[in-house]
Amino acid sequence: MAVDEVQQRLPCQESLWGAQNAEDWKGLFLDQQRYGPTSNLSTTLRDLRLPHPISPKLGDFARLVLVFTVYHCSFSITAKHNLALWMRAQRGPKARPAVAFAGTLLRLLRKYPCQGFHEPITALLATLVIWAYSRLAPTSTPYYGHRINGSNECGSIVRLDRILSDEAEKAWVEGEQGLKGHLKDVGDIAVLDAGSRLLSVGELLLKRMNTWVLSQGLVVWLGKLKVRSAATLMVDTLSVGSSSHATCA
Q1: Contact partners, residue 32, CB within 8 Å, separation at least 6
Q2: DSSP helix/strand/coil, 17
Q3: What pLDDT digit, counting tens, does each position of 5-16 carry?
Q4: Angle, CA of 225, 231 and 234, to the nearest 5°
């Protein structure tokens, strides 16, 4: 939730909403002020954590807002926890198969579009899976290998948006040392600025799905994510540079 949302005051009791006239409303309002002014959402959540009893001045609507807020916070915490687990397993058998599958989906959406209703959300999810991996994976330097025996693998490079041999897929999933995942128009997905290029690929793919209005809304959303991602990347780059200078000094 946004900071300004949790600072909002909770709704007053239903009796105030149902007052017949201004005089009745004033009397009810002054009566409820005996318990103090209506708390904001942040203060009420803090009281629940201490734990303090819920204030008697909260009406049914305010309590409903509070329940939904607690549910929302619990869902966010669970999502962050699951993402943290996925982050720790990024070199293991959980994240890499998801990335390989997402790469396959991008290849199919690019090469065999059918303008199906499922394509925009599929393109978004595939893009986000690889983007999340690229943000979490250890950064690497670009590698320019040579294609081996006409296969889709170039030295230690695996083209995730092409059909992989069983050996290449196994090596990728198991995290073979030095193996780099590549995508068309992105390159190595583990280099520092790969995430921005990947989001651009996702934007372009969604723009081509102009049959569905949803795709254009997702284009806007990915554009905003790209701006935020670029800002974060700049901060990270400056932090790394500062650390390097400090080490040299």
Answers
A1: 12, 13, 16, 57
A2: helix
A3: 666 777 777 788
A4: 140
How far apart, in whole angstroms, are the C-alpha atoms of residue 21 and residue 5?
30
Distance, CA of 173 to CA of 92 (rounded, Å): 7
Q: How far apart are CA 96 and CA 113, in angstroms?
A: 25
* 186 compared with 141, residue with greater pLDDT: 186
Q: In angstroms, how far is the first alpha carbon of the chain from the final one?
A: 42
Instruction: Spell out the domain ranges in the chain.
Output: 3-85, 91-242
**Residue of 97, 188, 101, 185 lying closest to 137 (CA atoms):** 188
How far, in Å, are 116, 171, 224 from residue 215 at the CA level? Answer: 11, 34, 14
pTM reported for the whole predicted model: 0.60
Question: Between 25 and 91, where is the model more confident?
Answer: 25
| Beta bridge partners of residue 99, listed in sequence order | none
Side-chain half-sphere of 158: how many Cα atoms within 13 Å? 27
Q: Which helix (H) or strand (E) holds 30?
A: helix 22-32
User: Contacts from 91-95 at CB under 8 Å and sequence distance 24+?
Assistant: 91/175, 92/175, 93/173, 93/174, 95/133, 95/136
d(CA 63, CA 6) in angstroms, rounded, equals 14
Mean of pLDDT over the chain: 77
Sign of CA dihedral 47, 52, 56, 59: positive
Residue 190 to residue 134: CA distance in whole angstroms = 5
Confidence of residue 247 (pLDDT cuts 50, 70, 90): very low
| Residues 7-65 pLDDT 10s | 677 777 778 888 888 988 888 888 877 766 667 777 777 777 777 777 777 778 888 88
Q: Indicate the SS3 state at residue 126.
A: helix
